[in-house]
């Protein structure tokens, strides 16, 4: 047997109104404990539940007591006895325990133990008896071999025979005559006593069938005869009534607590329902406003779809205009290219003219040099060369004019060349800008194509939005109708919450009356 330590030797007094209750499964594991058990044992509810009930067993309890307990329970009968239990800190307390199997559909499903305070003299008697059993005394307490009515009958017959013997001895009667009278009379009186006490024997037999516990009988009644058996059976019945009343009181207490919690929950639920009722009205109003807004959005979405379609058309027209502009710029680029080519050719012709002028310039210089030489030779010839000198002067003048004109033409051609170079550069810049414009126009065309596609997408989405908004409007109307149904249901819930609060208060009152009724069964008139 498991020995639970430590033990302090200090006794804890059990309150007279204590109702120590617990239940276990068929293997002795705790499945329920009430607050009184938790308070007096010192264990928490978590430490007790799911653990074997023998963790509160005190080492002073002899194993034989619990062997009889389990043998009785497994036979389907109730058991009552004086038990010493250990607290968590090692203290102990004495209780009168009534343990009974709990049936469901004819089968045992759990064991219930209801314990109450035991009188001090019973605790002391149990302490002495259990010490004897631990020290090697009898593990079982047995009933007398001869029933009481047989012992009483034999006693009456024996006394009668003794009386006749004294009468015969003092009266000087013959022993044969005394015996002839004494024996029949003694047998008759013994038979009358034996027969008259038959109901007591039958009652004791019924009591033994109800409560067959010699050890408990000896402790509670102090007797080991039929009267002790009947007294113990009556105590068992009393304990059974107290156990039922204790279980009812415990259940009524829990019912009262749960009824209070239910009332609080219903009150909270009622307030929440009222709040929900107001919020439902607000939501219904908001849904109505949303429905109006949805209709407005639907109209705006339809207008957006129309505007998107018009923008799509305008974008297409703009794309066509940009495409025409691109073609014109391409043509301009080509014309500028042609003009540039012509200017390039003009610059080449200018260079050729410049080369011709250089030749004329050289010829004029040579002519001027020849005229000068001719004039020198005419001067040497004197009068004979005077006419030749005039011609030489004319030739020199013509060469100088030619040289001067050539210089002017060369200056003009140089100016024309510079202008042509500037024109070529300007045309090149124009061509680059035109090419850039063509590229930008191409990008603009691509952008317009993208815009056109996006506008098409917007148009399609606007149509979808309009359809979705229409559907949402229908859903909003359904929601509004459902909210109206919720509002009606909420009103019903508010009424039902009121009825539930009233019913909860009635349940609490009934639980209180049930507790009072249980206290009557557990009151002093059932005590010993």
From TrEMBL:
Belongs to the methyl-accepting chemotaxis (MCP) protein family. It is found in: Cell inner membrane. Residues 14-76 form the PAS domain. GO terms for molecular function: transmembrane signaling receptor activity. Residues 438-484 form the T-SNARE coiled-coil homology domain. GO terms for biological process: chemotaxis; signal transduction. Residues 251-487 form the Methyl-accepting transducer domain. This is Aerotaxis receptor. It is a multi-pass membrane protein. GO terms for cellular component: plasma membrane. It comes from Zestomonas carbonaria. SMART domains: MA. Keywords: Cell inner membrane, Cell membrane, Chemotaxis, Membrane, Receptor, Transducer, Transmembrane, Transmembrane helix.
């Amino acid at each position: 047997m498991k020995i639970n330590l430590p033990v302090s030797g200090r006794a804890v007094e059990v309150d007279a109104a204590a109702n120590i209750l617990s239940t276990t499964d068929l293997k002795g594991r705790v499945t329920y404990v009430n607050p009184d058990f938790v308070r007096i044992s010192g264990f928490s509810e978590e430490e007790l539940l799911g653990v074997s009930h023998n963790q509160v067993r005190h080492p002073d309890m002899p194993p034989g007591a619990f062997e009889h307990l389990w043998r009785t329970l497994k036979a389907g009968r109730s058991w009552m006895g004086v038990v010493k239990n250990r607290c968590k800190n090692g203290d102990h307390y004495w209780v009168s325990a009534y343990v009974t199997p709990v049936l469901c559909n004819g089968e045992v499903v759990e064991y219930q133990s209801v314990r109450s305070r035991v009188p001090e003299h019973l605790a002391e008697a149990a302490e002495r008896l259990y010490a004897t059993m631990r020290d090697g005394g009898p593990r079982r307490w047995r009933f007398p071999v001869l029933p009481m009515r047989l012992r009483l009958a034999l006693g009456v017959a024996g006394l009668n025979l003794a009386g006749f013997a004294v009468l015969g001895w003092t009266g000087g009667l013959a022993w044969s005559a005394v015996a002839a009278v004494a024996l029949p009379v003694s047998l008759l009186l013994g038979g009358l006593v034996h027969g008259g006490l038959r109901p007591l024997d039958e009652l004791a037999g019924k009591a033994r069938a109800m409560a067959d516990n010699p050890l408990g009988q000896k402790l509670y009644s102090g007797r080991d005869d039929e009267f002790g058996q009947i007294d113990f059976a009556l105590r068992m019945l009393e304990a059974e009534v107290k156990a039922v009343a204790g279980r009812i009181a415990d259940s009524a207490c829990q019912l009262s607590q749960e009824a209070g919690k239910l009332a609080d929950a219903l009150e909270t639920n009622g307030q929440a329902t009222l709040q929900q009722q107001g919020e439902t009205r607000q939501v219904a109003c908001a849904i109505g406003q949303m429905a109006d807004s949805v209709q407005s959005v639907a109209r705006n979405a339809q207008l957006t779809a129309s505007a998107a379609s018009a923008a799509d058309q305008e974008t297409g027209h703009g794309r066509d205009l940009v495409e025409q502009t691109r073609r014109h710029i391409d043509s301009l680029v080509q014309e500028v290219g042609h003009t540039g080519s012509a200017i390039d050719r003009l610059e080449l012709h200018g260079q050729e003219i410049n080369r011709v002028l250089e030749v004329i310039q050289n010829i004029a210089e040579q002519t001027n040099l020849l005229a000068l030489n001719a004039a020198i030779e005419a001067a040497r010839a004197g009068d004979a060369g005077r006419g030749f000198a005039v011609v030489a002067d004319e030739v020199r003048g013509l060469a100088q004019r030619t040289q001067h004109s050539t210089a002017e033409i060369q200056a003009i051609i140089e100016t024309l060349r510079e202008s042509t170079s500037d024109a070529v550069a300007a045309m090149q810049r124009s061509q680059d800008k035109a090419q850039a414009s063509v590229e930008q126009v191409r990008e603009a065309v691509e952008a317009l194509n993208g815009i056109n596609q996006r506008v098409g997408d917007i148009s399609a989405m606007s149509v979808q939005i309009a359809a979705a908004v229409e559907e949402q409007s229908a859903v909003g109307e359904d929601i509004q109708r459902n909210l109206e149904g919720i509002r009606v249901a909420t009103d019903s819930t508010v009424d039902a919450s009121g009825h539930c609060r009233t019913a909860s208060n009635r349940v609490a009152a009934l639980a209180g009356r049930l507790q009072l009724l249980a206290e009557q069964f557990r009151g002093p008139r059932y005590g010993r």
